[in-house]
What does this fold into?
Amino acid sequence: MRMGRLTRCALAALSLAVAAGVAACSGTAHTATSPSSGNAKTIKVAFGSTYVFDTTGLTNKWWNQVAQQFEASHPGIKVQLVPIPGSYNDIVNKLSLLYRNPSTAPDVAEIPTGQIGLWASSGYLRPLNSELPSTSWWNEFPAVVQSEGTFGGKVYAVNQGENDSAIFYNKKLFAQAGISVPWTPHNWSDILAAARKIKAKLPGVIPLWFLAGSGSGANGLLQGINNFIVGTATPKIQDGNKWVVDSPGIRDSLTLLKTVVDEGLDASESQLFSPNAVTTPLALFPQGKLAIAIGSNYYPGNWTKFINAPAWPAAPQTMGVVPIPTEHGGGIASTLGGWDYAISANSGNPKAAFDLINIMENRQNSIDAANWAGWVPPNKTYWTAPAFTNFAFSQALFGQILPHATLTPSSANYSIWVQGMGNATGQIVQNPNTTVNQAINTLKSYVSNQLGPDSVETLK
It folds into this structure.
């Protein structure tokens, strides 16, 4: 399985190592354009070279095409590409290192959503408010997408592509179990009812993939329990500067997980705790070993021959995709996270830097990035474009889900809450006797011990 597939799942992820990323970085890097120059003839662009897009070949193709387009329209100014190889943490730590010194800060960088708030508050990023009103694309971004780079009324980053979540189900297995398709669950009870019927009729098939434990870090929550928490009447994970460790929504979501685990509807402990758990359903569905999964929009593209070999040609006919319902129905629930473009506060040519972003946000480049990295483009006018919808099945559906999705918190301390919730859900999987109260106490104790008792909050 290509590294790019894991990339699609990691778009908004934060890890414990990232929490200290800025503080831990030191040293020097490539010499960049002097920040004192207002018309620098070279702009540096930093990006993940082996992690963000699905393949290195697609990464190089995309960045080279935008550089060529920019240079053709800006004679005399060159784009210097600064590839950053390695994992999510490698990208974050390298960018933190570059940003620490004004002389090495890239003019433009591809950054994860989860780092925007931290880097903006550190003075690394340049506000874009004055440039955005003149663009053709900013007003086409849904409000939730516009808000992800906005802090204190200033926009510090604009989205490159988003990941949101839905429910995938195998229509052939549903038919064998006597469940009518197309299937449309209206609430959590409908999901449980289908999983129970699968278990009763199809022994050997995993009824429902519901991620738990800390093995997948923030990715596991992005495609797991967070999708249910945000679908309750108390959807908050972060409330101002405090982290929510107890609420009716968290309790109901943990109760749902406990029901799934207690009734043997979930995958095995070893599968759920694997570091590759977020990508495991991609192999289980074609094998007919999994009936339902809480998954991400990158799934369909992964089954195409353009992205992966071997492909799964039968996927469009075999798989169904539906939005995740809210707890009692009447709405759509999903998490949301992605990658963004930002301009350094020390850029020597901020006008040229924004011109490059303007090119990267055009129709061709935005759709290519979405297809090649497994995203939904942020511009809603592209969600129905044939170049996007024809790339893989259900592409348009994920565009329809996006405005209803809830952003992943953009804070270094989110990684602490992630670990606490991973410990809580993992406790339920490992010990069937775990109560919801005990799981809540695990979450609360971990976050309180790491951040202090004043950092946590209980919602009624």
Observations:
- Confidence is low (pLDDT under 50) at residues 1-37.
